[in-house]
């Protein structure tokens, strides 16, 4: 793809944004941005959380979040200084010639307005068409974004649509003003991979048809690689590298950018040897036999007056056998039941049928209260979001002391010594003992959570999307740590993930789930090289990688 | 565990010390704390500094206007208004200061327990809570006073019981927010007992909400106490109390307005002080209490 | 949606039933009954027993509860302790007066509170907000008998603009309470405006900082339209429940204000009954007030269910 050259549509010149901190000094969020986007061109802006990429995207529309202010420099749209426009002119441009596709349309669509009126509102504001034509035009727009059954959708409220449909409505709304440029702020975050691919295809087609300039902000290098002509890498409010997508993503000429791009896990081609390699037999760690789980637990009224057997099982027919020191990856789109299975193994959700066995013979009872403490010790869980899984009022020493006291009766100085050892093990060191969770970064917190799980000296560790809340560079080091611990302690992992590359990196077996049933399962080598099911194949096809054909 | 426990205690105290400083840094908190502090000091030292005996009658000086001897004049029985003003907040402060901790302990623990327990116990208990909330305001309190008398041994437990019921609801709601968090799930998955989860995970993390709630309930309890007293269901005469003084002095308001102004200002400033402090505390802790309505 | 509705209705019925049990049991457990109150010192021996027989107090508590509850369900609360007054008739008069007072306060208060709340919320932390919010703290914390006293002192005694107390008898037609009921209405309005306004303010602030308001801004929607079309429908929904609590409070518990202004409503009747220890009247009034509370909240819950698209379109199984 080559980018056509002409006058820039969006342009930043030495643009600085900042806020006044408590102590009175000015903190810069954007530190002198120079950037331009031309008609017919898509510019990708990548960076980790806190790099300022979303602030930059919204600033192109002359908008800063409350508390932020422009310090110096300019932001132009079609030659107009966006921070010198009157409010009325800004209102005309926003949603008119300059459209926004927001991060999560579920939050961005007004919940009390039906879809029809919301689209028509945009048309009335920005198009000079007669009232009778507005509805027709709205229907055309919704058809254009490939929504089915448009008249029915027009009468719906936003919450009645799926995530993908909401995103399509947002796109239609952005198109209402026949824009020259689109700003996309993480447009596919939170969507399933297959939906993500459809949305990106749609946006790309529309951009080509209308010769629009697009500015796409994303933390996902794969998304950027797929759609962008040029890429800018942001780090702490600065653009550290900018250039043609292929150059930036394949041969980055900047240290940070290279680190960032290298850290993205990629699906590796499966070697013939790996395909043939049989898993060594080291005894069984975990067995699931025809397990069925119902996610919605009946409430008091239903249990008293309802008939329990009427409830359909959310997850059913799950069989699994995991060897000692082995890892199984559970993958699938949201709602496929992968986390539900994990919670059932942990005892947080009771199983309705089937059996869960630990080791060769211990059958776990369906709920925690009936399990023996020794059995509980053998299975530990690590959660997705480290901000949520550590008690904010406890220090690291206290957090780690809890399993030690519960399972081994260790307290006092001995617990503190052991906690220090555990911190060494996850490479944090004893300096962290007296810190509170809010005094640590996301990656550090996740390491503490890992240390807490290993404090119990478990045989099986359940990992629930444990890297998805982390930035890619942090994710890489956490995955490395997990692999090391597994080697050292001969622990088995059940690893839930939505990123196929991450799962491949860590797993020996993989199980693909769909609507609570097993779609396909087998050794990683076999499933990744020759998936048997069409659905699995579709999942692989939807994966976007930074160095795929740009 | 000894070491870790001492550490918790210091972090706990230093955290609340910091919160108190932050409250005092807000204008509303500074005014509130000043008013509350002033009232507490006056309540403690007033018996030593009052110029007259609060029950001394002087039939020669009935409804006398303010002068050098009686700074705020005298009331309908010839008692010194200023003396009764200085002493008039002691009962209210004493009763509420004792009843509020009881309220928060009973309501807070019950709410946290129900929030964690769930199931039929929670369902039945909440129906009872709903029923008690439907009982109108201060009427049950008045009934108790009429039957058992207005002694502190009746008022304190009665106030604590009825004020604790809405607290159950608030504590249960706060617990529901915490119970869904992963660190509580993690503790459950490890197999900690319910008591241990309440003590280690739930109480420390609902404490902020409960403190704000306690401060707010205190201002309403003072209001209720003085209303009871105003209506004649509170402190028995001749013990001085602002609510009662206002009720007595209102009758002669057109002749002797000085009798009613003092207690009105004193009582209002105390309740406003508590409320401003509660408001600043809520803002400091990031808890929006204006969404909680008149329950 | 239907299941939700039915469940909510059932909860209301259960609550009212529990209230009736609590009230009846409360009166049973407390020392003394209607006879000991009426007979006072003579309450012993044969006299007491005859009295109990006459009033049916010698029957088992369960039987008496059934009688009382079924009567109450039909609006018949029997007669007062001294056997002089038919409770339902007297109560009906007072209810009319209380409704008059509540209607006066609500018709002024609710629109005013919403207006002030929206203004304060939109002008967050600016002068208008600080002024209105501070005034609200004063209005809701100053005891009603204090604000009432100030009102009387200034407007009745010093300026002579308003009547200080109500002298109209309880059974007078509604119109005759004009202008005597104005001071009471003002005091009540102040308190309720403060509560509702604070809630509306924080709700407006929350909604105005939501993503969909930001999106509407970036869609080019003018500010006025954002507020009216996008923000207020979401922001005012929670106000329904606060208004309901206020209505329940006005219809049931304004004892202090009614006493201060000598207004013949439910509150005054209750306090008189308590002073007289007239248990049948107390039971009847508390039951009535509690039932009103439950009913008003029920209506509010149903209304917000119907007005909130998220709940309205909830299918039987979400």
Topology:
The complex is a heterotrimer of chains A (550), B (295) and C (318).
Chain A: E1 8-20, E2 26-38, E3 42-46, H1 53-59, E4 69-77, E5 80-81, H2 87-93, E6 98-101, H3 105-108, H4 115-126, H5 131-144, H6 150-154, H7 163-175, E7 181-185, H8 193-210, E8 213-218, H9 221-227, E9 230-235, E10 238-244, H10 245-250, H11 255-263, H12 272-276, E11 284-293, H13 300-305, E12 315-323, E13 327-331, H14 338-346, E14 351-358, E15 362-364, H15 373-378, E16 379-382, H16 386-389, H17 396-408, H18 412-425, H19 442-455, E17 460-464, H20 472-489, E18 492-496, H21 500-506, E19 509-514, E20 517-523, H22 524-529, H23 534-542
Parallel strand pairs in A: 3-8, 3-9, 6-7, 7-8, 13-18, 13-19, 16-17, 17-18
Antiparallel strand pairs in A: 1-2, 1-4, 4-5, 9-10, 11-12, 11-14, 14-15, 19-20
Chain B: H1 2-25, H2 27-49, H3 81-87, H4 90-117, H5 119-134, H6 139-148, H7 152-179, H8 182-190, H9 194-230, H10 242-250, H11 258-285
Chain C: H1 2-29, H2 34-39, H3 45-55, H4 61-73, H5 87-122, H6 127-141, H7 144-158, H8 182-208, H9 211-218, H10 223-236, H11 239-252, H12 255-260, H13 266-275, H14 279-307, H15 309-312
Descriptive key words:
heterotrimer; A: 550 residues; alpha/beta; six-stranded mixed β-sheet; 23 helices; 24% strand; globular; C: 318 residues; mainly alpha; 15 helices
Short synopsis of the structure:
Chain B has 295 residues and is mostly helical. Chain B is built from eleven helices and no strands.
């Amino acid at each position: 793809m080559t980018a056509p050259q002409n006058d820039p549509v969006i342009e930043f010149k030495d643009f600085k944004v900042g806020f006044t901190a408590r102590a009175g000094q000015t903190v810069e969020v954007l530190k002198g941005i120079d950037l331009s986007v031309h008609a017919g061109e898509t510019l990708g802006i990548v960076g980790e959380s806190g790099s300022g990429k979303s602030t930059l995207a919204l600033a192109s529309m002359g908008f800063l979040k409350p508390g932020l202010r422009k310090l110096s420099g300019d932001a132009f749209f079609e030659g107009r200084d966006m921070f010198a426009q009157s409010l009325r002119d800004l209102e005309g441009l926003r949603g008119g010639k300059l459209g926004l596709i927001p991060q999560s349309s579920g939050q961005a669509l007004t919940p009390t307005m039906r879809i029809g009126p919301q689209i028509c509102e945009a048309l009335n504001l920005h198009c000079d068409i007669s009232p009778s034509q507005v509805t027709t035009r709205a229907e055309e727009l919704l058809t254009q974004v490939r929504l089915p059954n448009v008249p029915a959708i027009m009468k719906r409220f936003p919450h009645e649509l799926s995530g993908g449909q909401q995103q399509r409505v947002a796109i239609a709304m952005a198109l209402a003003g026949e824009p020259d440029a689109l700003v996309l702020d993480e447009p596919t975050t939170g969507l399933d991979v297959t939906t993500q691919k459809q949305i990106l295809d749609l946006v790309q087609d529309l951009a080509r048809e209308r010769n629009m300039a697009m500015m796409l902000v994303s933390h996902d290098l794969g998304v950027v690689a797929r759609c962008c002509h040029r890429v800018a890498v942001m780090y702490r409010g600065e653009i550290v590298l900018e250039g043609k997508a292929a150059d930036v993503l394949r041969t980055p000429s900047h240290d940070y950018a290279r680190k960032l791009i290298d850290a993205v896990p990629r699906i590796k081609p499966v070697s013939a040897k790996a395909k043939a390699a049989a898993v060594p037999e080291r005894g069984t760690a975990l067995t699931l036999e025809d397990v069925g789980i119902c996610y919605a637990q009946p409430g008091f009224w239903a249990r008293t007056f309802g008939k329990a057997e009427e409830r359909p099982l959310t997850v059913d027919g799950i069989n699994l056998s995991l060897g000692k020191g082995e890892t199984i990856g559970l993958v699938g789109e949201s709602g496929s039941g992968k986390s539900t299975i994990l919670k059932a193994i942990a005892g947080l959700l009771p199983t309705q049928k089937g059996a869960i066995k630990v080791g060769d013979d211990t059958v776990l009872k369906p709920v925690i209260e009936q399990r023996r403490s020794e059995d509980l010790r053998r299975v530990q869980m690590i959660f997705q979001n480290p901000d949520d899984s550590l008690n904010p009022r406890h220090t690291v020493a206290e957090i780690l002391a809890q399993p030690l006291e519960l399972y081994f009766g260790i307290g006092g100085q001995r617990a503190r010594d052991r906690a220090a050892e555990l911190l060494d093990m996850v490479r944090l060191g004893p300096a962290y003992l007296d810190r509170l969770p809010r005094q640590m970064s996301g990656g550090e917190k996740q390491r503490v959570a890992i240390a807490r799980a290993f404090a119990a000296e478990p045989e099986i560790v359940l990992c629930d999307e444990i890297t998805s809340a982390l930035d890619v560079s942090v994710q890489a080091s956490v995955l490395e740590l997990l692999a090391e611990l597994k080697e050292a302690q001969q622990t088995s992992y059940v690893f839930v993930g939505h990123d196929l590359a991450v799962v491949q990196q860590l797993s020996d077996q993989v199980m693909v789930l769909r609507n609570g049933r097993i779609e396909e399962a087998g050794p990683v080598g076999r499933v990744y090289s020759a998936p048997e099911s069409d659905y699995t194949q579709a999942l692989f096809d939807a994966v976007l990688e930074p160095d795929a054909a740009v | 565990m000894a070491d870790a426990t001492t550490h918790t205690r210091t972090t706990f105290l230093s955290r609340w010390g910091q919160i108190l400083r932050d409250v005092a840094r807000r204008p509303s908190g500074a005014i509130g704390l000043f008013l509350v502090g002033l009232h507490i000091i006056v309540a403690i030292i007033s018996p030593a500094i009052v110029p007259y005996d609060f029950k001394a009658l002087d039939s020669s000086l009935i409804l006398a206007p303010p002068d050098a001897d009686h700074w705020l004049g005298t009331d309908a029985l010839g008692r010194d208004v200023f003396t009764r003003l200085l002493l008039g907040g002691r009962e209210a402060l004493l009763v509420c200061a004792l009843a509020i901790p009881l309220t928060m302990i009973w309501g807070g623990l019950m709410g946290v327990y129900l929030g964690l327990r769930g199931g039929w116990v929670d369902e039945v208990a909440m129906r009872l809570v709903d029923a008690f909330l439907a009982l109108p305001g201060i009427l049950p309190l008045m009934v108790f006073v009429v039957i058992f008398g207005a002694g502190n041994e009746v008022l304190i437990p009665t106030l604590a019981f009825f004020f604790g019921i809405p607290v159950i609801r608030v504590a249960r709601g706060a617990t529901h927010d915490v119970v869904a968090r992963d660190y509580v799930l993690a503790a459950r998955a490890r197999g900690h007992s319910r008591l241990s989860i309440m003590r280690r995970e739930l109480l420390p993390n609902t404490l902020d909400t409960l403190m704000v709630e306690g401060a707010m309930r205190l201002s309403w309890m003072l209001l209720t106490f003085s209303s009871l007293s105003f209506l004649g269901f509170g402190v028995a005469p001749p013990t001085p109390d602002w609510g009662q003084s206002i009720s007595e002095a209102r009758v002669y308001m057109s002749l002797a307005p000085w009798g009613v102004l003092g207690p009105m200002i004193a009582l209002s400033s105390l309740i406003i002080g508590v409320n401003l402090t509660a408001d600043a505390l809520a803002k400091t802790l990031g808890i929006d209490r204006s969404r909680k309505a008149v329950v | 949606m239907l299941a939700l509705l039915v469940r909510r209705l059932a909860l209301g019925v259960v609550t009212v039933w529990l209230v009736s049990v609590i009230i009846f049991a409360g009166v049973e457990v407390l020392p003394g009954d209607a006879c000991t109150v009426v007979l006072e010192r003579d309450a012993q021996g044969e006299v007491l027993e005859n009295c109990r027989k006459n009033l049916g107090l010698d029957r088992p508590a369960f039987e008496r509860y059934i009688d009382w509850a079924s009567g109450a369900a039909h609006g018949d609360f029997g007669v007062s302790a001294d056997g002089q007054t038919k409770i339902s008739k007297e109560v009906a008069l007072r209810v009319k007066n209380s409704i008059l007072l509540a209607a006066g306060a609500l018709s002024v208060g609710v629109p005013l509170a919403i207006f002030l709340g929206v203004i304060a919320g939109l002008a967050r932390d600016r002068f208008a907000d600080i002024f209105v919010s501070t005034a609200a703290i004063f209005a809701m914390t100053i005891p009603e008998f204090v604000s009432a006293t100030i009102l009387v002192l200034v407007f009745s005694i010093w300026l002579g603009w308003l009547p200080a107390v109500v002298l109209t008898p309880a059974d007078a037609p509604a119109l005759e309470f004009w202008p005597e009921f104005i001071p009471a209405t003002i005091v009540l309005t102040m308190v309720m405006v403060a509560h509702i306004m604070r809630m509306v303010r924080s709700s407006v602030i929350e909604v105005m900082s939501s993503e969909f308001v930001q999106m509407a801004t970036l869609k080019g929607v003018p500010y006025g339209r954002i507020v009216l079309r996008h923000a207020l429908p979401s922001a005012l929904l929670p106000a329904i429940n606060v208004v309901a609590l206020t209505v329940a409070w006005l219809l049931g518990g304004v004892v202090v204000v009614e006493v201060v202004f000598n207004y013949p409503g439910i509150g005054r009747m209750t306090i008189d009954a308590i002073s007289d220890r007239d248990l049948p009247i107390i039971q009847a009034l508390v039951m009535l007030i509690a039932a009103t509370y439950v009913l008003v909240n029920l209506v509010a819950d149903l209304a917000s269910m119907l007005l909130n698209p998220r709940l309205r379109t909830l299918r039987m199984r979400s």
